Amino acid sequence: MSPSLKQLRYFVEIVDAGSFSLAAERLFIAQSALSRQIKELEAMLQVVLLVRKARHVETTPAGRAFHEAARSILAELTEASAQARQVERGEQGTVRLLHSSSVPLTPACTAVLREYQAGHPGIRLEVSQASSEQQALEIEEGRADLGLAREPLLRRLPRVNVDPLYSERLELAVSCAHPLAREDQIALEALREQPFVSLPHPDRGGLSQRVAQCCLESGFYPRAAAAISRKLSQLALVEAGFGVALVPASLGRMAPPGVRFVPLADAGCDTRVVLLSRRDAAPAAAALASRLRAALPAQ
């Protein structure tokens, strides 16, 4: 058996007070009940902790070691209790935010994060990247709190809310040396024979799936380039001349200098960003989700 928290508290109070009688007064219990608890504690530990004197008690060497450890345990328990209450109120803890590589943290988004953190100084934000499908799974299984993903999502999970945030146009990314770089705008049909540096994964949604949908609506499926990537590195492949890509306009600020963005002439070639969150989100995560919905409204 292990000592109870009550026994630890009683023992520490006796040592701090210097006597059983004063400790009993502070604890509002009978001195006999206090003595009984200490006898049971010593019997359990099989050591003598306290020696009674005429007007006070003294700790034995074992008692001094136990007193130090007991005070530490009680202090840690008090701190843990306070932290639990703060987390429950959304005042302390960690919010884990995931985002797709195709959903860059724009100035508007980082402004929301800064404002939120200023109002919640006890909250630490952990931000990392994951695919749209992986974000949903991480949130479903409790390893993340929020996600910024691109539609389509191939699977909808029971514990995960999906809220539209905003849409943006897709644009053609080409090398500055590519003949299409001279165009003011271009129709999707004109890309039928172009090699694409990004193709959809059969088990993942997100940007590449949306691009394939748009191409299919124009009567063709993207041809694979000799080198492909579903991450932001596809822009480096475009710059190197491996092929073309359809990407959100917001990625233009992150593109290498040798890449030009050309608007599409086709209507409906857009991509939507959604906010993923748990239906039973903790208060801190729910507060950030609310701010993101308000600041990045659906279009």
Largest sheet: 7 strands, mixed
The backbone outline, from C-alpha atoms, is rod-shaped
CATH superfamily of the largest domain: Periplasmic binding protein-like II
- Radius of gyration, in angstroms, nearest whole number: 31 Å
User: Stretches where pLDDT falls below 50 for ≥5 residues?
Assistant: none
Structural class determined from secondary elements: alpha/beta
What letter string, H or E per element, gives the SSE order? HHHEEHEHEHEEEHEHEEEH
Compute the average pLDDT: 91
CATH topology of the largest domain: D-Maltodextrin-Binding Protein, domain 2
Considering DSSP H and I runs of 4 or more, what fraction of the residues is helical?
Answer: 25-40%
Number of structural units classed as domains: 3
Q: Can you count the beta strands?
A: 11
CATH class of the largest domain: Alpha Beta
Beta-strand fraction estimate:
15-25%
Question: What would your notes on this structure say?
Answer:
The chain is built from 9 helices and 11 strands. It folds into 3 domains: 5-88, Orthogonal Bundle (Arc Repressor Mutant, subunit A); 93-166 and 273-295, Periplasmic binding protein-like II (D-Maltodextrin-Binding Protein, domain 2); 167-271, Periplasmic binding protein-like II (D-Maltodextrin-Binding Protein, domain 2). The protein is rod-shaped. It has 299 residues and is α/β, with parallel strands linked by helices. It has helices at 5-17, 20-27, 31-45, 61-88, 107-119, 132-140, 207-217, 234-239, 283-295; strands at 50-52, 57-59, 93-99, 123-129, 146-150, 160-175, 195-196, 223-224, 245-248, 259-263, 270-278. α5 links the parallel β3 and β4. It is 39% helix and 21% strand.
